[in-house]
Amino acid sequence: MEADKTVSTQIEVSDLTTAFQTQVVPMPICKYEILNGGPTGEPVQFATIGQQVYHKWTCDSETVDTFCAVVHSCTVDDGNGDTVQILDENGCALDKFLLNNLEYPTDLMAGQEAHVYKYADRSQLFYQCQISITVKEPHEECARPTCSEPQGFGAVKQANQTAQFFRVLKKRSVEAMENVLDVRAELTTLEVLEGDLPASLRTSAEALVASSEIGYDTFGQGFCVSYFAVSIASVFAGFTIFVAIFMTYMIVSRVPRSKNSDC
Description:
- It is a single chain.
- The protein is of the alpha+beta class.
- 21% of the residues lie in helices and 27% in strands.
- It has four helices and nine strands.
- It has helices at residues 163-175, 199-203, 205-214, 227-254; strands spanning 29-36, 46-48, 52-60, 67-77, 83-87, 103-106, 109-115, 124-135, 180-190.
- The termini are far apart.
């Protein structure tokens, strides 16, 4: 005989337990360097007019593929209030003769070659830039500024080609101001007519300071004096000559005139 029976059993399934895992990722540490010749050159503190250097911005992070960096809002000044903007708030160059549009070899590195220049009456150049740090989206490339070819002498500012791009950066930076970092670099430009600047001066400020203290030319061609020292010496020499002439006049005027006597 055949029989149909229904059998059943019971099993209980508990809900999956969830746990939140958080990790504090430190912000990258950024720096601005001016290197001699190219991206692998030595940092320079002293250079000659026309010398080729490499402006390099790098950020070091403890994690990989986590952050993106964009350099923008760069200015150069002479330390006396005369400031020129070389990168706008979008990260685009304004004057190709001062600094061209930047290249981004990696997510946290930017750079560009340039030639050394100086103000007419100042030898020091002070560079200051801002670096926006944003979180990199998974499996996506870092957003980069799209800039047109800059004009010479800052004649034409870049259009709003990267406005939408930079609004994203600003939106992310508003919530946490630490996402925008300030970096600085300094360069002293020397007017050398003959020969190249010795390598010791490019990397060591002490060599030039020592030579300037004793007034001896590092190139072994004589003594060097600054324009300020020449001005002070000229004023002192003029004052000395004036005092000598005045004292001579006073002495001569005090000598009694000889009277003719009858013989």
